[in-house]
Amino acid sequence: MSTLGFVFSMYTPWWSLILMAAAIAFVFPSNNINAFLSGFLGVGLLWLIMAWKIDVETESVLSVKVAELLMMDDTNMLVLLSGIIGAFAGGLGAFTGNSFRQLFLRKKKESFYS
Predict the structure, then answer these.
(1) Could you give the CA distance from residue 87 to residue 44 in angstroms, rounded to a whole number?
(2) How many CA atoms lie within 13 A of 73 on its CB side?
(3) Residue 65: CA atoms inside 13 Å, Cβ hemisphere, count?
(4) In 3D, which of 50, 49, 30 has the Cα closest to residue 91?
C-alpha cells in the first residue's frame, strides 16, 4: 500500500490516501481492528517518510517556521507529529472502508440447530 500510496499521493491531494486506504480495506476482507492497524501503519509510515523527505530537501526552511508557530523546539517533532496525524487519518479511513464493506454482507440466520 505504501508504494502505491507514494506514487498516488504525488499527483493527488493529501486526503486521497485516506480514500485509498478505505478502498483497500473495502476490497480485502478483515476485521475492524486489523483494518485500522493496517491503515494506521501504512499511511502513517508513508506520511512520516514523505514529511522527512520534504524536510531534508528544503533544508528545514519551512519546518523551522512552523515549529516556531507551534512552540516546538525541534523540527523532528514536527515531522513525527505529521506522521501521527497521517497514521490516525489512514487508520480511520481503513476502518471506514471495512465497516462500509460489512454493510453489504448477509448475516447468517441463526437456527435452532446451529
Answers:
(1) 4
(2) 0
(3) 4
(4) 30
Residue 52 host element (H or E) = helix 32-57
CA distance 57 to 1: 24
Q: Which three cell numbers stand for residue 89?
A: 487519518
pLDDT at 2 over 70: no
pLDDT by residue (tens digit) across 27-62? 998 999 999 999 999 999 999 999 999 999 998 888
Q: What predicted TM-score, i.e. pTM, was given to this entire model?
A: 0.83
Q: Which of 24, 18, 19, 26 is nearest to 104 (CA)?
A: 26
Q: Which residue has the higher pLDDT, 64 or 109?
A: 64
Q: 3-state class of 114 per DSSP?
A: coil
